[in-house]
Write a structure and sequence with these properties.
The structure is a homodimer. Chain A is mostly helical. The first copy, chain A, has one domain: Winged helix-like DNA-binding domain superfamily/Winged helix DNA-binding domain (Arc Repressor Mutant, subunit A, Orthogonal Bundle). Chain A is built from six helices and two strands. In chain A, a hairpin with a 7-residue loop joins strand 1 and strand 2. In chain A, helix 3 crosses helix 4. At the A-B interface, helix 1, helix 2, helix 3 and helix 6 of A face helix 1, helix 2, helix 3 and helix 6 of B. The structure holds a DNA duplex.
DNA sequence: AACAACCATTGACTTTTTCAAGCATTCGCG
DNA sequence: CGCGAATGCTTGAAAAAGTCAATGGTTGTT
């Protein structure tokens, strides 16, 4: 076991800084999730894209980019990868032929399901009421743009 | 105003995924903070390092790396920059001459103070009780390694 | 019909992240 | 004590992620 060197610093004012806690928590979560998803050939990014593509009314790439706060060009790469693996498909939006709707294939939704089981819920150590307040507060911060 | 394209996707299951909310919220926060800090020549990273160097018992680079979850080599670059600008100083730790203790200079702590005022508190729209639960829950997630 | 706005894509470029190797120092153990 | 393993900082290279401008096809507006 590492002798918790970080404890020295634990008393820092940063510990009460929500921005800092946010980034540290998200890094911790992302590292864990990426590790869990690696065997499936996914990362949190591709996992999220797959999840969005699963919707009844699948999103366009632009919507994905906005939702995930990515540059559209990054979405291209993500979708390219998942499409080549047969996990989702691009279709030009009939209502706007510039846009491409991204929908998961059966294989994609199947993989997503196993992936979802693989990723342990991060709020395991938190009680349900607290977890719910957490979700609500985070959602507020995440979508306050 | 943009017609909130992302709303289409707002109902996605991801919206209840804490990991996702965490990363999205932290990206939003980081972008805002970076923007606010830019005029001072700081980013959230350097701001954090400065904050840690302000402690009564200043940390070593290794401790900074661990606390910020960065690779030690990244800390080198950060400290290099801040040191060249006279905002902090390296001193070899008398108790372990391999390690270098990083302490803020007066100029550094002054800049940190103005920086702290510049960065608007992200929990402005959240009531205090909720903010406190948020902090507690985030801390749990952030340090559960 | 013409023009501006918009989506997806490409390519270039910068920044961030991740690794491995190096030197100096410390620690544990014989 | 002395020797090898481990640790802390530093460097440099490679991979990944982020940013930005330009292009082709399409839409919407005038």
């Amino acid at each position: 076991m590492t002798p918790a060197h970080a404890d020295v610093v634990r008393g820092s004012a940063l510990t009460r800084n929500v921005s800092f806690l946010l980034t540290r928590a998200s890094v911790v979560a992302a590292q864990r999730d990426n590790e869990a998803l690696a065997p499936l050939g996914l990362k949190v990014r591709s996992f999220s894209v797959l999840g969005l593509a699963l919707d009844d009314q699948p999103p366009t790439q632009r919507e994905i980019a906005e939702f995930l706060r990515l540059d559209p060009s990054q979405v291209v790469a993500l979708v390219d990868d998942l499409e080549q693996r047969g996990l989702l498909a691009r279709e030009t939006d009939p209502r706007d032929r510039r846009a491409k709707v991204v929908a998961a294939t059966p294989a994609g939704s199947e993989l997503y399901e196993t992936a979802r089981e693989t990723v342990v819920d991060i709020t395991a150590g938190v009680d349900e009421h607290e977890a719910e307040t957490l979700r609500r507060a985070l959602a507020k911060l995440a979508f306050e743009a």
